[in-house]
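hey so u asked for the seq, here:
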Amino acid sequence: MKFRKPLIAIAAVAAIAAPAALAHRMWMLPSSTTVSGTDNWVTVDAAVSNDLFYFDHQPLRNVPVVTQPDGTEGKVENHFVGKFRATFDLHLTQQGTYRIAVVNEGVFGRYTLNGETKMIPRGTTKANLAAAIPAGATDVVTSEALTRNEIFVTQGAPTNTVFKTTGTGIELVPVTHPNDLIAGEAATFQFLLDGKPAPNLFVTVVPGGIRYRDNLKQIDLKTDAEGKVSIKWPDPGMYWLNATPNAPRAEGEGEGGPRRAAGEGPRAEGGPRAMPSGPQPRRVSYVTTLEVLAP
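ran it, C-alpha cells below
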C-alpha cells in the first residue's frame, strides 16, 4: 500500500450508506477525514436521507464501533440523537488511521402459523431466532442480512492496521488507502466476501451533493476475478460507494438507491409488498463514503 505525505488540516466529510433493501442511504459525516498533529477531535453527523449528506429523513441511531490505529477499540463521546440526525465526537490521540463502523447483522424471513403467513420480526438475530418463531410454526424460511457501513479518519500518516478482516460479509482491503484519493487519479480497492476475493460485485459510486443537481453522475463498476475494482475520480469531493452482489438501482430509478433485493415481491400502489416466494437470498453489502482531493 502506497501513501503520500500527511495532508494538513483538510476540511472533509465522509459517510456510510444503507443496506441493499433500503431506498434511503445511511451515512456518517465527519468534520475532517485527515488531520495533522497528535491530539485532535472529530465531530460526526449521522443520518438516513434521500439526498446524500443532507438531513431530510431520520437520524442514524446506531452507536458506531471505533477501531484505533493500534487495533484497540476506541469510543465515541457525546452521542446525541435528534429529529433528523445523530451526532457524536471522536478524540484522536494516536497517529494513523481510525475506522468508525456500523455493522448490522440480522435474520429475515417468514413462517406459517394457523394458516397465516407472517414475517419474522425486525431486529431478529441468530441468537434470538428460536424465540422469534412461535411454537407450531411451519414452512419456516430464513436468510441472513449483513451490512457493513464504515468511514476512515487519519491523524498524521495513513496506516493499515484497521483493515484487518473478520472473514464475515463484504470487507474492504485497500490497495489504495481510502484517505489518499486524488481527482484524476485511479484508486484500486479489493473486496472480500466471507474472507475470500469477491468477483462480480456491483460497485456503485455517486458524488455527494445530489440535492443540487439533476443527474446523479453515478458510476457503475464490477469487481474483477480478484475482487478488485479501479475507480478514476472525475472531480474532487465526497463520493458514496456501495458494493453488493445485487444489481444497483440505475440512474433515474427513484432516489438512486440500491435495487430491491432479489426474491422480494412487487409492492402494490399504496399497499404492502407481496410476500416473497421460495428461499430468500442472503443480503450483504458494504458502504463507505470517500473524500477525493484536488490534485
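Confidence is low (pLDDT under 50) at residues 2-22, 251-276. Residues 21 and 124 are 16 Å apart (CA to CA).
lmk if thats what u needed
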